Amino acid sequence: MTQIEKFKQASFDDKFADxxxxxxxIGCGVGKNFHLYPRGCQVTAIEVSFKKVMDxxxxxxxxxxxxxxxxxxxxxxxxxxxxYDVIVVSMVLCAVKNVALTIAELNRVAKKNARLxxxxxxxxxxxxxxxxxxxxxxIHAYLVGCHLNRNPVELLEEYFTITHREDKMSxxxxxxxxxxxx
Length: 182
Prior knowledge:
By secondary structure, the chain is an alpha/beta fold.
């Protein structure tokens, strides 16, 4: 297990135990978080990649509760406003085209006081690392689909109160955020 996987398990995965109600997971990939959801949740998971949706649907069949997985774009969520009790965002804000629009959509579909769990890599504030991240980000985005130089925390704080934050310094810094909609 890598250091980042250990950090994710310690800071993010453990927070799933007390999740209840209607849950929206943004950018579920192939469903690596699905086994973490406790019984009693109604989980909807979206993914923009059709291939990953197919894989996530297979993963969902092996889980209780079985998340409902659909192909959708986080920048234009096909759900009613003020619907979800919990929003889970794991390694997706680095990949969306418009972070501000995505976060506004999360705000729209979240109920008042909805819980927010975020696990992301972010840009560093330390030089020369920040310069290196900025130089590599366009290439990395082209090859992998992920931007190395984003920090969505201030945008998230426009709509959500962050009650807990953990940082992990690595080649690229990682954060875990726990909070709720204002």
